[in-house]
Amino acid sequence: MGDDADYLRELPTAIEQCWSAWRDLHRTPPDRLYHYTDADGLVGIVNSQTFWATHWHYVNDVLEGRYASGVILDTFDSRIGQSPPEVAKRLISLRDTYRANAGIQAALAQVHIVCFCQDPNLLSQWRAYGADGDGFALGFSPDALLRAVDSELATAMKLFKVIYDAADQRALVENSIDALLAAMNDHPAQDVFDRVPRLFAEMAFCFKHSAFAEEEEWRLVLFAHPNFADLFHVRTRHGRLVPYAEIPFRTKSPPYIDLVHGPTLDVANTRRALELLLAKKHPSSWNEVGISRFEAPLRPR
Predict the structure, then answer these.
(1) Could you state, in order of their start, the residue ranges of all structural domains in the chain?
(2) What pLDDT does residue 8 have?
(3) How far apart (Å, rounded) are the C-alpha atoms in residues 194 and 285?
């Protein structure tokens, strides 16, 4: 999934245009993205200069992959019911190809993600990661974030925008279906069927239910490669085994720009501890990181 240039050169024109339009959605992230974490997570990131990217199958919302698959299959079924017999026959073949490959793809997918939000003052995230005011949000420039990792690793990573609106999701699936149908007019059917898994694959980790829309999430996605075998590990979280991938930063200066701490009552001591943490790891550049406080009140649960 990493090399778009090689992939696009191999595609029928209609699918190439659809793939390019899909990737254009993700090409312009906001200037700043925030990763929310708790105190242990913050200390781990700063001291190890490493992100732990969670395997996609082990993210908090275990139904994400099923949700995206449901949107895709529902759209196929709707189109089949509205189409004349010859077109419906092609759509059934495309749908069945997607369905047959989706399970295999999900089982074999070695995709690891780090989640970011556009907003550093998102109450739901503070409640999730700092109900007692002890959470943190690290702010990154997307470009600097990708420059901070090893160049070989960076080629296997992409930032993706999460899409929440059901109408937008359906339109994206419709566009892909239209591209596949158009390609079948000019290319052997099997050549088109071979493109089906790839065309829909990234929707699996980019579609989320609209209930999560306030997150405005972007995801840093690492696609597995045999060269990265040493980066893959397993940890425990709440008594559960969770595979993850290490994404180390190679820059000496901090790759993060902002550090926002939760609405703790002990502001002075929290700031003092953050300054010590940063200064210990980055003695010559720690004060380049802006430290601020989430201002809205948060009642502990």
Answers:
(1) 4-293
(2) 47
(3) 50
